[in-house]
Amino acid sequence: MVKVLFLLFLLAPANMLGQSTYKLVWSDEFNKPGKPDSTVWSFEDGFVRNEELQWYQPDNAFCEKGLLIIEGRKEKVRNTEYKKEGKSWKQARKYAFYTSSSLKTAGKKEFLYGRIEVRAKIPVGGGAWPAIWTLGNNMEWPSCGEIDIMEYYRIQGIPHILLMLPGARMPGIMPCGTVKRFLLTTSCKRTRNGLLNFTSGVWIGTKKQSDFI
């Protein structure tokens, strides 16, 4: 069983960032036991993207002791969209053998500029692909683009933390060794002049959006 622990801050206060111009406009410390706040968070359901093996379901996510816990489970679940002659990968699989949860704030909490900061404890075992990312709200993914604040991925068998844009030529990549779990505080700041500032324990750098495309 894999657990991913999240603590989310949006537009963190000045004393955290060392900048007096910031004002906290929203945060979620997940301090109410049970399901995440439904006025802020929605769940993705079923098979969603990338032909991934996991089946997304709300049962795998809950709040406990000030943490959002997302569990990856090995279990057999019937695909409710299965069709014997299904042409898409979402329809062709009769069962899923792994489950997880994917949460989003789309349509409930949306921001254009500012700083998003997340503290998370993530697994680094084989098959894990945890990510913290933002999307545009004016069209469907992948056309809307994305900003990956944190994406765990294996490169040549070595766990890495990636901070990047889709199709990026200049991602920030940090190997995180052979540890079983990885604890990090990661953030992304977007400004009106198109600058993106990535940090994850150490400063990654500041680039214009045009530098990545």
TrEMBL record:
Q: By its UniProt entry, which InterPro entries does this protein fall under?
A: Beta-glucanase-like (IPR000757), ConA-like_dom_sf (IPR013320), Glycosyl_Hydrlase_16 (IPR050546)
Q: What is this protein called?
A: Beta-glucanase
Cleaved signal peptide residues? 1-18
Q: Which GO terms describe its molecular function?
A: hydrolase activity, hydrolyzing O-glycosyl compounds
Return the GO cellular component terms, semicolon-separated: membrane
What processes does the entry annotate via GO biological process terms? carbohydrate metabolic process
What is the organism field in this record? Bacteroides graminisolvens DSM 19988 = JCM 15093
Report any Pfam family annotated for this entry: GH16_XgeA
The residues forming a coiled coil are none
User: Could you say which protein family the record assigns here?
Assistant: Belongs to the glycosyl hydrolase 16 family.
What PANTHER family has UniProt attached to this entry? GLYCOSIDE HYDROLASE FAMILY 16 PROTEIN (PTHR10963:SF55), GLYCOSYL HYDROLASE-RELATED (PTHR10963)
What UniProt keywords are attached to this protein's entry?
Signal
Q: Taking every annotated instance into account, which residue ranges of this chain make up the domain GH16?
A: 15-213
